[in-house]
């Protein structure tokens, strides 16, 4: 019986490769997200305001940056002592952010397959918001038509990041 079987060597090689990969990613991330984005040659969405290009993509990127910033701000909550309610309080803005980004795709995107996917995202995220709110005993606002069709940017209502029209303070009731 060989002390170092093929299976043993293969498992150790995979383990070493994974460890090296994790160490490399950790090293890159330790230098901050800016370094990581430079390595990928990508412009992170939070830096869109500094982007000097005046391309057709600017309104889309700006709308997405607004949605992301609002989502992140609204996900920061003061713990209530009720894990379930706190989960919902953080997940609703997360889902609403997905809805807002999908609406931006409908407004500015051109790919029909992505439009269908964006429409599905809007519907399913709204359903999940409703299910979460009902699970913690919140009442739902009156139903409105799902905004799955592109709305010209100039005609769009102000973005509601609390999902389904519920006021912000309703999210934080005990």
Automatic annotation (TrEMBL):
Ligase keyword on record: no
Species this protein is from: Bradyrhizobium lablabi
Protein name: DUF305 domain-containing protein
Residues in the signal sequence: 1-30
Taxon lineage: Bacteria, Pseudomonadati, Pseudomonadota, Alphaproteobacteria, Hyphomicrobiales
DUF305 domain mapped to chain residues: 63-133
Pfam families according to UniProt: DUF305
Stretches for region Disordered: 140-174
Keyword field: Signal
Endoplasmic reticulum recorded as keyword: no
Database matches in PANTHER family: SLL0788 PROTEIN
């Amino acid at each position: 019986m060989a002390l170092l079987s093929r299976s043993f060597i293969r498992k150790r090689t995979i383990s070493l490769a994974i460890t090296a990969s994790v160490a490399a990613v950790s090293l890159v991330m330790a230098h901050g997200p800016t370094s990581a984005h430079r390595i990928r040659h990508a412009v992170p969405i939070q830096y869109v305001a500094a982007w000097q290009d005046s391309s057709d993509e600017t309104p889309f990127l700006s709308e997405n940056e607004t949605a992301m910033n609002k989502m992140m701000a609204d996900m920061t909550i003061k713990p209530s002592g009720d894990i379930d309610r706190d989960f919902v309080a953080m997940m609703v803005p997360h889902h609403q952010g997905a809805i807002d980004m999908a609406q931006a795709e409908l407004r500015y995107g051109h790919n029909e397959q992505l439009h269908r996917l964006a429409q599905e995202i809007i519907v399913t995220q709204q359903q999940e918001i409703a299910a979460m709110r009902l699970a913690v005993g919140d009442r739902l606002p009156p139903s409105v038509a799902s905004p799955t069709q592109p709305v010209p940017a100039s005609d769009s209502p102000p973005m509601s990041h609390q999902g389904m029209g519920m006021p912000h303070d309703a999210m934080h009731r005990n």
